[in-house]
Design a protein that fits this description.
heterodimer; A: 1388 residues; alpha/beta; six-stranded mixed β-sheet; six-stranded antiparallel β-sheet; 45 helices; B: 84 residues; mainly alpha; Non-ribosomal Peptide Synthetase Peptidyl Carrier Protein, Chain A; 0% strand
Chain lengths: 1388, 84
Amino acid sequence: MTEPEATAIPLTQSQALIWTGQSLAPESPLYNMVWRIGLRGALDPDRFAAAWAQVVAGADMLRARFEDRQGQPVQTVTQSVSALSFLDLSGDADPRQAADNWIASDAATPVDLTQSTWRSRLLKLGDTDWIWYLNQHHIATDGAAGAVLLRRLGVAYTQADLPNPPQFADHARALAEAAPLDPAIRAFWDAQAEGHRRPMTSPYGATRQPGQPASQRLRLDFGADRSARLRACLANPRFAAISRDLGAFALWAALYAGWLHRITGDTVIRIGAPFHNRLTPAQQDTVGLFIEMLPLSVEVQAGDTLETLYDRCLSAAIDYLRHARPGTGTPETVVLFNAVLNFMPVQIPPLPGLATDVQWLHAGAHDGAHDLRLHVYDFNATGTYTVEMDVNTALLDALARKAAAAQFLSLIDAALADPARPLEQIALTDRRDSILTGGDGPASPASVLDAIAAHESSAAPAVICGDTSLSHAELAKLSDRYASALAALGVSPDRPVAVCARRSLRLPAAVLGVLKAGGCFVPLAADTPPDRVAAILGRLKPAAIIADAAGRDLLPPDTAPLLALEAELSEGTSGPGPGSLAYVIFTSGSTGTPKGVEVAHDAFARYIDWAARSHGPQGPTDMPLCSALGFDLTLTSLFVPLVTGGAIHVYPETPGGTDLAILEVFAQDAVDVVKLTPAHLALAVAQGTPVARISTLIIGGENLTTALCRKARARLGAHLTLANEYGPTEAVVGCMLHRFDPATDTGANVPIGQPADGMTIAILDKGGNPVPAGVVGEIHIGGNRLARGYYRDPDQTAAVFRPDPFDTGPMLYASGDLARLRSDGTVDYLGRADQQLKLSGVRIEPAEVEAALLSHDAVSAAHVMAWTPGTGKAARCTRCGLSDTVPNVTLDPEGICDICRAFEGIRDAAQAYFDTPEGLQAELMRARARKTGKYDAIMLLSGGKDSAYALYRLADLTRDVLVLTLDNGFLSEGAKDNIRRMTADLGLEHRFLTTPAMNEIFRDSLQRFSNVCQGCFKTIYALALKVARDEGIPAIVTGLSRGQFFETRLTPDLFRGRTPSRAEIEAVVLRARKAYHGMDDSVARLLGTHEFLDEEVLEDIRFVDLYRYIDVPVSEIYRFLDAHAPWVRPGDTGRSTNCLINDLGIHVHSRREGYHNYALPYAWDVRLGHKTRDEALRELDDDIDPAKAEAMLAQIGLEEGALPPRRGGLVAYVAGDVSPAELRAHLAARLPREMMPRHLVILPALPLTTNGKVDRAALPRPDPVLSTPDSAREPAETATERALLEIYQRMLGREDFGVTDNFYDIGGESIAAIQIALAAAEAGLAVGSTAVFEHQTIRALAQAVDGAAPVPTAPKKTPDRAPLIDLGAEDLAALGRVRTRKARADTP
Amino acid sequence: MTDPRAARLSQVQGFIETTLLRGRAIGGGEELLLSGLLDSLAVMALVAEVERVSGRPVPPTDVLIENFATLDAIGAYLDRQDSA
């Protein structure tokens, strides 16, 4: 008998997903569905085998095979039925063990789909003891299919006649022919995906180790008791649901989500849940894969109980089921979750006459995208749930897996015991991993004055300022005088004395004098805005004020008795000695007014003692006084030298409004220890002066990156100890410490380490429970040196200083900082928990900025937040898929973007630009007539599909073509092969063009435009024009797509209010082309284009864009290339392009601009019907390996840090009728510079939620580019101005300013200032590091430079200009630099 | 086909019997939900069918046993929707 022909069946989407998953890990048993069915009783093996054969003969999926044909899976059904084989183990010493061993081994072997979709054996353990083993590939089955099989096998075994079941082929064909999904259904699932590009947090913050997916199945000891309790809970009317299974599912989902929330810290939990997808009885009887995985999203809210979370899960489940349709589980939805809940309300019937025990075995691996899979089932209808958890073993070790399971059970037990109890009150574990306690440390003095007094007879310098100094003895005397003078003004213990002055020789004495008089000092920096000074003094009611001339300018009249810092002071004696309070420091307050943190003497003395012991050379320690007086990190520099007998080196404020004294500290290298913020360290690294004496840097104030530490050691000195000190003002400067170790600190950020002596750190969740190790929680600080509270604000004090429930000390301070405990026992800092922001080390309460905005009469409402482009909830155009994170793109109420709308208006008018194939022929005829050399035309061939097709169409018309390709060093080999094959096939001449300047062009393009294409495009045009000119070729043919025409040329502006003719459009395009090539940029400079490219050449050589004349859908292009050209889709770029460095451009662009480099071009492809929206979104959803991107950066000679940082910063939304300029002036008088919003968005009214709160999601995104200054652009006039303008443009990444614009207004800040100074010095211009701030316009700076003597040109570090600065992007981001986005990439 | 109410209920009945139950007839008072006759997915398909024949959405708060437990209950629910 000949075998009937096999029939092919289309794969369903679910099958295709599984096929892809298996292709990625071909050796792994990811999708083995293994049944071990124990059968006891008188079994007839032959009858069993015959029954199975009948089942196989009846169900197509049991006879299916899969093959890979050119990368595409093909599913065919054969007629062959292989016989069930037996394995007799009854003679074995331990038949059961032997059977289990055999099964375990076979279960872990992938099913070879080219042979069959299953393997099976009937194992004999004894005469009445059998196991039927069935291992199926998931591509051909699911849980419900297992039940169908068993039921059919039972029928076939007991009665000979088995009716044929419905066939899977019918289902698959029906799906393939089904009408497209209802748009409302599609929109529901799209909405689940929008704004959730990032995966969920992994349990316990674990990170995956790469490798083959492997997992362990843990069987939870769920048991009959718990099952009964769970059923009892469901029987309670409180847990009613429209169907039994739905209630049970929602309850399991609530328990699971409640637990996931606790072990991930996520508040929106997305669980992947399969829906069985068998609506009709026919589907229910079919053997095959029906299930699809869809996300179930549920928010866990504060105060949730099992009841409330159940309610939310139930309504989420109803929503889920109402939108579940065949085909909704797509590649986009399956990536939305990493935890799966597989609730299977399936019962598998026993085989008649046999005791049947159905077990579902784990093959040792599951889909690597899933961290956890929870399975709940009761196949044998025993009433007891089987609960199993598959844990990705690359994620958690064996111990952690067991602990995880135990924690889940303890949450279940407590929640079921009292479903109305807040879940956050349930302790997952009695372990307190996340409560850390520092050592005891030696006893410290009661006051810093005691330790300082020990040195009061020393003649060694205590304060050095320039050429002047005070010895410790002189300091003691001078401070006594201040104390006496203050006492005479009425200062007594615990009365506040404001100190408002610039840094000077006398300042430390004045501060000590306050303490000696018994008072507490209140430091105010001399650049504090006057309104803020007035607000603080108004609250403080100080007993006296010490101020220098600068400070006195800020003071409101008649606030308090004033003591001039520089006053002649008469002889004095020590005052009454320390009161209880040492100082009050004002920080940004959430109520909108600054709040004063009160620190007592004993706590302060303990900190200074610990700091001196931990950071100093264990003896006299010299430190610089170089930071702002009101900032608590300055206190370390002010007191550690005095208590150790060392010296304070005073570095006065530098001129120009931005204090760069820190640079002098490193230039002079005269101290032992420097305390500074990461932002200041970044400046020092940029300056790059190596140091020898400075041995320790204490870095505090904000997150510290390892990249910055590595660079600090490389640039400043490998001997440096870099100490990351963490601590809010409320915990007295610093309470945790970690010393950077390049060998072990390999993550992105430096940990904050472990608690200081006497301190306790508790990382707690919102319910106040210590979080499990790895889970994010809020840092709570206890111990013996907390602040006393907030100055005259008991409510605020009580809100954050709370009794310590763990009895580690009297109080715990809730810091609002997020952190997690690592497995090595150190703590990672993870940013702020609340709305409070930290920019450049300064805490910013948005409320305070809002209060300043609201103090303007014309402002009726204000909302302030931090913003980075590309963050926040994104929506996509329902037509083209463009995300509204792209600047200037907004969606209308129908969800359609501006560009689609504009396109509607110009689509017809733009037709004038397009021509017919005859037009192309005419162009080429003209070219042939005009040529003076061998070729009619140059063809620019990138090797991609568009230019490949264009080449063939061109070759139909002429073979006198010179084909050119720019080999930029990153062309894929596949593309090069394509190019060689095609040009050989057509017999055309071909050249690869190269330039040694390519990498520099890439660097410039990345720095200016955040992409590589811009530089690359311009290079190919310039080089091709040169060839054309040199060889008398009159035309250059391109394969630019029609989408690219619309993106770059046929813009709506061109058609506004008129319908231009073809000639008019062409004239506009030519003008744009001349401007493009006339631009004096790196391509022009490096390729010397001005030598061969003038207007005449551009008019003479015509660009012929082939797709202007030929309109062809992309499917036809692929079809044509398949049929007629030796063109193969490149396999090594991972996308439909031909250039490997593209990935770098995409990476940089996404990081910096917040959206994908191809978002706009692909949206055009969709608009013009060249791609579907889904295809475009799929291609845009790429995950570029940062390591690969960094490697490419290194390859082109750029360090990651040389790239501009992400845009963004503080944004203020204001409702009111007021101009931005007026508002900025208003704010400048009230806020410190670092609290000034970077973006001001003025609206008629702020959008509100139904609760009346500002609807953050509805706020428009600010334009990521700062607005252009209002002034007209003043061109450079002198050579110095021209040179400086070029440097400014390069360093600021924008060109939209002139020589009279203020540095701050064009997005400048300190790092840019230093880069500019270094670049200017390299160009031979005498620009000091603070000059850019002193002379805030290019014109003023140029005048200063021209007045000064020229400096000798600094030697270049490398011939091809090493990057001037190489800080981590994060460090630069901390400095809040903003650049402008430039015009599009590819206007020729 | 005189009574539009009866007509639409018979459409719902037809959907249950043909699409969900392969021709098995159901009585007006026959328990559909707690009997396990319809599982969760089928119930939601039934809700969608009720929306289709009535031309009105069924809000999530109405997805309750008392509204969908039997064919009679569904009829009563539709009537209540009419008068709401």
